[in-house]
Amino acid sequence: MPQAHEEGVPAATGARVRGGEWPAVALSFAYFFCVLAAYYVIRPLREQLVAAVGSTQLPWFYGATFIATLILTPVFAWLIARYSRRIVVPLVYLFFIGCLFAFVPLFADPALIGPRALGTVFFVWVSVFNLFVVSVFWIFMSDIWNVEQAKRLFPIIAVAGTAGALSGPTLTATLVNIIGVAPLLLVSASLLGLAVVCIVLLGRWARTHGERRFEAAQEAPIGGGMLDGLKQVFTDPFMRNMAILLLLADGIGTVNYALVADYSGTALTDAVSRTAFAARVDQVANLLTAITQLTLTRWLLPRRGPGPVILVWAVVSMLALSLVVFSPDPHAPMAFGLPAVALALIVSRGLAYGMAEPARHSLYARVPRNVRYKGQNAVDTAVWRFGDTAIALGMNALRTLGVTTGGFASISALAALSAATIGWRMSRRVEATPAAEAQPATS
């Protein structure tokens, strides 16, 4: 069994990927690529819908999504309590593959349930799909890699998601005029099918070569109740802080998303231009994510830990939001033909996925398995969508009080400052705690 680095010794003193890790890193890379590509193939349909109806309707969409995640989160906890991960993790993806097949006839003939009903159902489903497939991916990663490996390898593995996020829109743009909209759902399903293959192969590798293979009951059902994950959010200090950190980060993203949706809906007059604009924003943000992952995060996370990574993300996001706050017209072109609201979204989103997400998920590698599979999933699904709903409702309320685009950007900047403080403190506390004594979860 390879010797792990001692705590506190920078992993960067050795090779980034060590000999026996290469097969699993390659499979993890392919797995995340397929998951994000599958999502981004179908994402433009959701984005066009939001721009068409305006951000004031987002609370309804987010509220329905929150209810859906609130129902599915205990279901996932119930499954993982009774069945091993080798059953539950592939089952999640097979469920979503089945849903994609079910949508095909509806997109082929929208009159079956009506275009508006289809749009609403699809928005909610895509939003749930995105959270669950990504959440389960990172839970699985935290379960097969140990703490030291997570800091070394998560920045590399995260690049695969960005590659998938860049490839997905390209696939859509290339294929939609050739095969139409409905068959794109089958393209997404095929990518998820490849992800399932990677999951099975990774499970086999972890059982024979993984650093965690000697841990007791590594693949056994976790036990406990179906509401454990939601309970952990309120009763476990670690999970409570992780939930607050995610809500602050979500506040930045949701506000920026709404401001850009408003710009797109007013400045762009047709579905084609709105879709093209959304694709351009996605491509630039994802490119920034890739650059950040390959440079700053890859260097900083193994050497300094999650705290400084989260701090840099928050500070740069504050600077980007200041463009909106101090711009005379945040909808006027500022750079590369993009307005300040779009630039703020690109920077904050690019660094959130390029820096904050790998850093945040590396913290979970220290916690017990019941927290990884229940609490982490609750935070990354139900808490996330609760934040979307609360923030969208709050924005509508603040609009009635006369808050404008600059005011919303100022609120986001304050959220970034708070996130930096909590992220730094959480990282310092967790890094000082031996992995075997990581915060216990309350079941």
From TrEMBL:
<protein>
    <submittedName>
        <fullName>MFS transporter</fullName>
    </submittedName>
</protein>
<feature type="transmembrane region" description="Helical">
    <location>
        <begin position="308"/>
        <end position="326"/>
    </location>
</feature>
<keyword id="KW-0472">Membrane</keyword>
<dbReference type="Pfam" id="PF07690">
    <property type="entry name" value="MFS_1"/>
</dbReference>
<feature type="transmembrane region" description="Helical">
    <location>
        <begin position="120"/>
        <end position="141"/>
    </location>
</feature>
<dbReference type="GO" id="GO:0022857">
    <property type="term" value="F:transmembrane transporter activity"/>
</dbReference>
<feature type="transmembrane region" description="Helical">
    <location>
        <begin position="60"/>
        <end position="80"/>
    </location>
</feature>
<keyword id="KW-1133">Transmembrane helix</keyword>
<keyword id="KW-0812">Transmembrane</keyword>
<feature type="transmembrane region" description="Helical">
    <location>
        <begin position="22"/>
        <end position="40"/>
    </location>
</feature>
<dbReference type="InterPro" id="IPR036259">
    <property type="entry name" value="MFS_trans_sf"/>
</dbReference>
<feature type="transmembrane region" description="Helical">
    <location>
        <begin position="153"/>
        <end position="172"/>
    </location>
</feature>
<dbReference type="InterPro" id="IPR011701">
    <property type="entry name" value="MFS"/>
</dbReference>
<feature type="transmembrane region" description="Helical">
    <location>
        <begin position="87"/>
        <end position="108"/>
    </location>
</feature>
<feature type="transmembrane region" description="Helical">
    <location>
        <begin position="332"/>
        <end position="352"/>
    </location>
</feature>
<feature type="transmembrane region" description="Helical">
    <location>
        <begin position="178"/>
        <end position="203"/>
    </location>
</feature>
